[in-house]
Amino acid sequence: MDTYREYLENIYNLLLQHFGPRGWWPGDSQLEIILGAVLTQAVAWKNVEKAIDNLKGADLLNLTRLDAIKEDDLADLIKPALYHRQKAKKIKILITFIYSEYEGDLNVMFKSPLEELRVKLLSVWGIGPETADSILLYAGNYKIFVIDAYTLRIFYRLGLCKEDTAYSEMQDFMHKYVIPEVRIYNEYHALLVALGANYCSKSRPRCNNCPLAKYCKYLSTLQEK
Ligand code: SF4
After folding, report:
1. Tens-level pLDDT at each residue, the chain (225 residues)
2. Cα–Cα–Cα angle for 122, 49, 64, nearest 5°?
3. What angle do CA 209, 211, 216 make, to 5 degrees?
4. What are the structural domains of the chain?
5. Rounded to the nearest 10 degrees, what angle do helices 149-158 and 182-198 cross at?
6. For residues 118 and 204, what is the distance between their CA atoms, to the nearest angstrom?
7. Using an 8 Å Cβ cutoff, are 134 and 25 in contact?
8. How far is the CA of 192 from the centre of ligand 1 (A)?
9. What whole-number distance in Å separates Cα of residue 104 and Cα of residue 123?
10. How remote is the CA of residue 216 from the centroid of ligand 1, in Å?
């Protein structure tokens, strides 16, 4: 349906006008992006930044050294990202996966077909769809839209989906109606995160200055009350 296409394009343009290009993902290398995708699970990005700085300070943005470090020592370094023991375990398991499947070579890993690599990543303990798709889009440049809690909340409030819409359903929708380009998928997700983090919070959203206010069903419901 063309109207969805136009609607999603309008939303994109409004967000881009408001926030400007986001330059995502924050990270200087594929490995840094992969680590960031795991570390950001369930926490704000500012926590991740401190953990990444610690890894940089310890010269650990390197697969060989990450493979060699003890899990407990890694956990200590990534403490600012919270759930640090669990996340250290996830990172170690992911690094072992990259070695066992791709001989520790990210260039080889990211030459795999999208679906094949996605299925493999999802089979790794601790890697769910959002983390896998963030790795695929932002580190691997694959054409896949990342869905997260912000995306679902914003589109629910705009009236585009149900509150309990599943990850895969929302992703199929975005794949169907958003211009299928890595550049656009990259920017669109980053813009939704910016809106979610700065305006569309779970409780007490800042609707007054929200760039999407004129589209928002949630806001019009509030105003009717
Ligand atoms: S108007 Fe309010 S509820 Fe609607 S998208 Fe913006 S911040 Fe969220």
Report:
1. 559 999 999 999 999 999 999 999 989 999 999 999 999 999 988 899 999 999 999 999 999 999 999 999 999 999 999 999 999 999 999 999 999 999 999 999 999 999 999 999 999 999 999 999 999 999 999 999 999 999 999 999 999 999 999 999 999 999 999 999 999 999 999 999 999 999 999 999 999 999 999 999 998 887 776
2. 60
3. 95
4. 2-23+146-224 (1.10.1670.10), 30-139 (1.10.340.30)
5. 80
6. 36
7. yes
8. 11
9. 18
10. 6
The answer to whether the CB of 80 falls within 8 A of the CB of 106 is no
User: How far apart, in whole angstroms, are the C-alpha atoms of residue 206 and residue 225?
Assistant: 17
Q: Ligand 1 pocket: which residues have CB below 6 Å?
A: 154, 157, 199-200, 205-207, 210, 212-213, 216, 218-219
User: Which residue's alpha carbon is at the smallest distance from atom 2 of ligand 1?
Assistant: 207
Could you tell me the distance, in angstroms and rounded to a whole number, from the CA of residue 63 to the centre of ligand 1?
A: 41
| Neighbouring C-beta atoms of residue 148, cutoff 10 Å | 20
Q: What is the dihedral of CA 129, 135, 136, 137, to 10 degrees?
A: 100
Q: For residue 221, give Cα distances in angstroms to 7, 196, 211, 218.
A: 20, 19, 17, 5
Residue type, 127: I
